[in-house]
User: Fold this.
Amino acid sequence: MNVVQQVQHATGPRAVVVDINHELRWWRDHYLQYPVGRTTYAQAEPTLKFAYDNYLLHPHQSLDAIWPDMHRRYEQLLPYEQLPWHRAKRIIGEVWQRITSD
Assistant:
């Protein structure tokens, strides 16, 4: 199943749609199979949501292009929602890989 759907318009793709509930269920079921699974799913869920939000903000940009802005935004999350950046970065990268792999 394609994770991301692009809503077409006469002039080309205009919007990107992600079923976040489907995605979070998928991650809940598969999280510990990934190398990023060093924290519990509950600890990682805010970072997973953050990753999808950022993809929806920048659907046509590469992850490398937005890392600096994303890091600044991540630091603005409430402290209890944050993981250490090196862990968050791996989780965000896995989400981005999942989204862009199809």
Summary: Residues 58 and 66 are 8 Å apart (CA to CA). The first strand starts at residue 4 and ends at 9.
